[in-house]
Each structure stands twice: as C-alpha cells, then as structure tokens.
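Budget justification aside, the reviewers requested a transparent look at the raw inputs and outputs of the sequence design task funded under Objective 1. We therefore reproduce one unedited record. The lines immediately below are the structure tokens for a 249-residue chain.
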C-alpha cells in the first residue's frame, strides 16, 4: 500500500492546497471487467461467463482465487485512500467512492454466457463480496456504471434488478448511497451533422426520471464523455438535447 500512498498522496495534497473541492475520490474502474482487471484471464477457465458471489467465496479455480484475493487487497487500498482523504483540509469530507462497477452482459444471472472468451464478475456480486470484506468501513459511496437503453419501464426494471440494488439512503443502515460515475447513450449516427438526438433524449429523460425515484440513495450522476463521436453530448458545435437533460439538476 505504500506505493499507492506515495503516488496518490502528493497529488491529492496539491489539489487540496489549491483549494479545489472534488466531487469525489473514486479508486479504480470496472474491476469486474477483464479490460481493467488482470486477474481475469483472456481465455477464462469458465469460457467467458458471468461469475458470482459464490465463485468468489468458494474459489474453485485459480482465476476466482486470484479475483477474491485481489478484491480483498482492493479494500485495503481503499483504506489507504480514506486515510489520505482524512488528512486533507478542503476535501476532508469529500466522499471516497469505490470502483465503478458495470453489469456484464446486462444480466444478473450467474453463469450467463458472454460473447467473449473472458469471464466477468457481476456488479452486485463483486460489491457484495467486497462489502463482506470490509468495504463499508472505507467507502462513503458505491461507484456504479449504468448504460441502459429503452422505455421508462425497461430502464426502471434494470435499475432495480441489477444496478442500484444495494444503494441506501444515508444513515438508514450499514449500506451506503451509490454514485453513478458513468452513464450515457451512444449516438445513432456518429460523425453526422445534424445529429439525430431524439432517441437519446427519450432514454436520457427516462434514466433521469427513474434514478430520481431513489432519492438520496443515489448521491450523484456523472455523464460519461462530453464530445466523443460515440457518446458525446456536445456535437456539431452545440450542446444536444440529451446533454441538457444529463446536465440538469
């Protein structure tokens, strides 16, 4: 952990010394995703499926043993980040956010066959395992990622089923609020002007409406990407309608 502290502490102290108030300090990104977690093999022992809580607890393969060990180490790393945060001035109360977790295959089913050779860990199972190993002692909020298309009822069902399952209103119990540190929608005609933003506006409004129903159990929402051709909300020289919805209070 000393290497982590040596790398991160001077950076946060410099930001803090400039009087910059951060929205949050999030450690890690999609650590259930093989693209961001080296403990997940390119050719997974399970053949490219979703792994769940019991896979991590039982550790029947070298992959799941490594994942479980890695998640325990991650909790220790989050403790180091909390200790650094506690010694800041401007950001002493800035929330520490656990690594943003995604939902592989848009499913909550363990053993679901993915269109890849790599295995991936389900959002809520990774979060449950880390919580069982002390995460709630060091995280103020749970980072989650949500890319959900569809009608209001479809988005509401997916949020309830496998994205915002463990989010809690502050002070209501041992669980913590969620921070949606990535959400967004792909544009249907990337690179084309004018942009056909209508479908994204509908989905963005549905998403905002449904997350609002969680109240303070959802602490914050950060739209992912500002100006890329795929996810950008500032395109063809102007803020799109979906962007206005994303940035609205």
């Amino acid at each position: 952990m000393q290497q982590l502290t040596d790398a991160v502490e001077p950076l946060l102290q410099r930001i803090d010394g400039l009087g910059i108030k951060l929205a949050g300090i999030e450690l890690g990104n999609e650590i259930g995703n093989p693209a961001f977690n080296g403990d997940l093999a390119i050719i997974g022992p399970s053949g490219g499926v979703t792994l769940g809580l019991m896979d991590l607890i039982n550790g029947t393969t070298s992959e799941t043993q490594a994942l479980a060990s890695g998640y325990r180490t991650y909790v220790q790393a989050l403790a180091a980040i909390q200790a650094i945060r506690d010694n800041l001035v401007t950001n002493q109360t800035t929330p520490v956010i656990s690594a943003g977790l995604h939902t592989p295959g848009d499913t909550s089913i363990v053993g679901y066959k993915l269109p890849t050779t790599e295995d991936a860990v389900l959002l809520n199972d990774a979060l449950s395992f880390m919580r069982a190993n002390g995460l709630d002692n060091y995280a103020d909020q749970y980072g989650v990622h949500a890319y959900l298309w569809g009608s209001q009822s479809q988005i509401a069902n997916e949020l309830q089923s496998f994205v915002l399952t463990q989010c809690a209103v502050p002070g209501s119990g041992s669980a913590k609020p969620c921070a949606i540190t990535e959400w967004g929608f792909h544009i249907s005609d990337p690179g084309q002007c004018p942009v056909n933003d209508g479908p994204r506006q509908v989905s963005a409004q549905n998403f905002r409406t449904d997350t609002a129903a969680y109240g303070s159990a959802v602490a914050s929402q950060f739209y992912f990407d500002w100006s890329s051709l795929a996810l950008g909300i500032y395109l063809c020289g102007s803020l799109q309608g979906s962007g206005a919805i994303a940035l609205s209070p």
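Residues 2-246 form a domain with the TIM Barrel fold (CATH 3.20.20). The chain has one domain: 2-246. Computational costs for records of this kind are itemized in the attached budget.
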